[in-house]
Design a protein that fits this description.
Blueprint (H helix, E strand, L loop, with lengths): L2 H25 L8 H46 L7 H5 L20 E6 L11 E4 L2 E9 L8 E4 L2 E5 L6 E9 L2 E6 L5 H4 L2 E6 L1
Parallel strand pairs: 1-3, 2-8
Antiparallel strand pairs: 3-6, 4-5, 4-7, 7-8
Helix pairs in contact: 1-2
The chain binds copper (II) ion (CU).
């Protein structure tokens, strides 16, 4: 039986007893008389029991509420922490270098394109080149990272990433983009790497 039910049982018993005692008092001349201590004890038990279970019931409700609150809090936490961590570091790294050609990449990306090779330094935060050149069209950077430090290479125009490889260590990956004539930036977007020197200019002409 729950504390709530017991509270009601004691409450109802108390009310019924009160009615019975008052009826008995009206009907019987010398009530409570010798039964007085018993009546007092009976009421003390009922009142004490009712009060006890009222308190216990209030505690139950409190516990239920805090459990609900905790659950709600956890759900909120889940929602707020589900977004992937994104660093704005790569955007800051972009200087004012790439402001020459304003051509729309898709409109004027016609051309043979080209493939260029790029590698990360095996031990330092650097690429082996700081400038890459290609014909307009589909430009592919074949990127090799011999280092145990994870790197990637992304192509940016005016601080906006156009394409990029995954971040990986000790491997080879390539990235392609349809590029119109202009000056682009290639960089490693791992926080701090472009600032340390993993950044260069990709000239398409
Ligand atoms: Cu890097």
């Amino acid at each position: 039986m729950s504390n709530e039910t017991l509270f009601y049982v004691f409450g109802i018993a108390l009310a019924v007893s009160a009615v019975l005692v008052s009826i008995a008092g009206l009907r019987m001349k010398d009530f409570p008389g010798r039964a007085f201590p018993v009546v007092v004890l009976w009421f003390a038990i009922l009142v004490g029991g009712g009060a006890t279970f009222a308190v216990l019931h209030a505690k139950d409700e409190k516990a239920e509420k805090s459990a609900e609150l905790e659950k709600a809090g956890k759900e909120i936490e889940k929602e707020t922490s589900s977004g992937p961590f994104e660093s704005g570091a790569s955007e800051e790294a972009e200087g004012g270098e790439a402001e020459e050609a304003e051509a729309e990449p898709e409109a004027a990306a016609k051309g043979p394109g080209g493939t260029v090779e790029l590698a990360a330094n095996p031990t330092e935060l650097a690429f082996d080149k700081t400038e890459l050149t290609s014909k307009p069209g589909k430009v592919t950077i074949e990127f090799e990272n011999p280092s145990a430090i994870p790197h990637n290479v992304a192509i940016e125009k005016d601080g906006k990433e156009l394409a990029g490889t995954a971040t990986f260590a000790e491997g080879k990956e390539s990235v392609s983009a349809e590029l119109a004539p202009g000056t682009y930036t290639f960089l490693c977007t791992v926080p701090g790497h472009a600032e340390a020197g993993m950044e260069g200019t990709l000239v398409v002409k």
